[in-house]
Amino acid sequence: MRRNKILVAALLALSIVACKSKKDAPPPAAVGPVPDAEQMAWHKMEKNAFIHFTINTFTDKEWGYGDESPELFNPTDLDADQWVKVLKETGFKGVILTCKHHDGFCLWPSEYTEHDIANSPYKNGEGDIVREVSDACKKYGLKFGVYVSPWDRNRADYGDSTYVTYYRNQLKELFTSYGDVFEMWFDGANGGDGYYGGANEERKIDRKTYYHWPKTLEMVREIQPQVLFFSDGGPDLRWGGNELARAGFTNWNTISSDSIYAGMAGIQDLLNKGSEDGKNWVPLEANTSIRPGWFYHAKEDSLVKTPEQLLDIYLTSVGRGSTLLLNVPPDKRGQFHENDIASLKGWDALLKKEFAKDLTEGASISASTVRGEDDTYSANQTLDDNYDTYWATDDAVKTGSLEIDLGESQQVKYITIQEYIPLGQRVKEFNVEAWLNGKWEKVAEATTIGYKRILRLEEPVDTEKIKINITDSKACPVINNVEIY
Ligand code: FUL
User: Fold this and answer.
1) Does residue 269 share a domain with residue 161?
2) How many independent structural domains does the chain possess?
3) Which atom of ligand 1 sits closest to the CA of residue 52?
């Protein structure tokens, strides 16, 4: 009896030592650039909405020339609360409003111009739509962002240095009066023909130097340090090279900022894919509109994207490691049109249906190899709800597999994988196999993962087991989440 007790005690001590030694592996060091706290919070937003609304809504144009009278701006029944409520109900986390588009008309009463809402019939010149939208965002818990077109076809001094001062003054107004702004959207369309205070001519600016962006950004950051700047080339978020919300099949969050600038020609492909060895973390924001145009046109009421088209868009944006920015333009009443609302709601319901039950719940998972044989980095860490725990391999091991046993045969259509990007983006190539007819069969393959990769199988499969094989990586893979639907 006593001997048995001694044996048990010895075994216990040994296992404690063994357990202890299995807790000692240090976490992987970061590889390459990593997101900062604001970028990280932005990645987690996944779906944001763009709202294009201005004088163009009333003139039925996409680009106002700049000579439109503010009298034309007259929404009959504007309801910014409705816009944000619908967006909240359909899963959006942030809103970016066109405070000023290329025609120069301002949706807020600006001290620096007469070409604004204060000179429109809306609320007898007492209206402020930037206020209404930012207030609605606060009410519904969405983040608020601004689009302020640098190109201004109304201003007589567009092209001179005084215009840049005017533009900065307007940013000061917007960044000091409406609360926190999470993102500022700089449009790459800059310079061309316009009204320009009556000159009616073509004006060209040097996109690289005219705006003195570093100084403008510094000024805004002094007022609101958390703001993320979007432009073709960043510095915080980059354009994806198309307006179809189609991120590159290979999508690196990294790019070398010094090789690009806003409005630079011929960089679409680079922006779409990023660069594996890029020196900066500048993730892709994938933008598109729910309608063919950015602004509301009654003739496009029948052309609103369907829930199925929006699902495809979701998969080429969020499903490729990017954030989606989907434009929903209010109509002449100042409301989201019924068709747009129906599509958004249908899309949300479709997403909830397609991603209804995560089959990894209750499944078991194992890894081909675990960093330092330490449970801290075991495969199980990909199935918990903690974003900050992950499966990792030893530094020298750049490939590895995760095998998920679903317990019984289930129909599988989607596989979602997340890489723990606070330690950098690593995976270059991976594939997915399913256990079919007594053997492993490849059912999907892709390149990068990044914040999130969702693979939709061409044909759903009935299987008991799924295997994810990381076949090439810049450094040891670090995977923090796996879901199967
Ligand atoms: C483009 C603009 O010219 C369009 O009007 C729209 O605002 C789109 C989001 O960006 O560059």
Assistant:
1) yes
2) 2
3) 7
| Helix (H) / strand (E) containing 307 | helix 307-317
Q: How far is the CA of 148 from the centre of ligand 1 (A)?
A: 11
Q: For residue 259, what pLDDT band results from cuts at 50, 70 and 90?
A: confident
The 10s digit of each residue's pLDDT in 353-408 is: 999 999 999 999 999 999 999 999 999 999 999 999 999 999 999 999 999 999 99
Quote the ligand 1 centre to 204 CA distance (angstroms): 18
Give the predicted TM-score (pTM) of the model.
0.94
Confidence at residue 10, expressed as pLDDT on a 0 to 100 scale: 44
189: CA distance to ligand 1 center in Å?
A: 7
Question: Structure tokens of 406?
Answer: 């679903």
Closest atom of ligand 1 relative to the 287 alpha carbon: 9
CA angle 448, 243, 309 (to 5 degrees): 80
Question: Does 286 share its domain with 185?
Answer: yes
Q: Report the amino acid identity of residue 83.
A: W
Q: Does one domain contain both 149 and 237? A: yes
Residue given tokens 């829930």 in the structure block: 307
pLDDT computed for residue 107 by the predictor: 98
294 lines ligand 1 (CB under 6 A): yes
Distances (CA, A) of 181 to 162, 185, 284: 25, 11, 19
189 lines ligand 1 (CB under 6 A): yes
Does 5 map to a domain?
Answer: no
Instruction: Identify whether the C-beta of residue 461 lies closer than 8 Å to the C-beta of residue 412.
Output: yes
How many Å lie between the centroid of ligand 1 and the Cα of residue 226? 24
**Distance from residue 39's CA to the centre of ligand 1 (Å):** 23
Pocket of ligand 1 contains residue 173 by CB under 6 Å: no
Q: Does any ligand 1 atom lie closer than 6 A to the CB of residue 192?
A: no
Predicted local distance difference test score (pLDDT) of residue 262: 66
Q: Rounded to an integer, what distance in angstroms lies between the CA atom of residue 267 and that of residue 247?
A: 14
Question: What's the CA dihedral at 149, 152, 158, 163 to 10 degrees?
Answer: -50
Token code pair at residue 266: 């011929």
Q: Which residue's CA is minimally distant from atom 4 of ligand 1?
A: 294
- Which CATH number goes with the domain that contains 127? 3.20.20.80
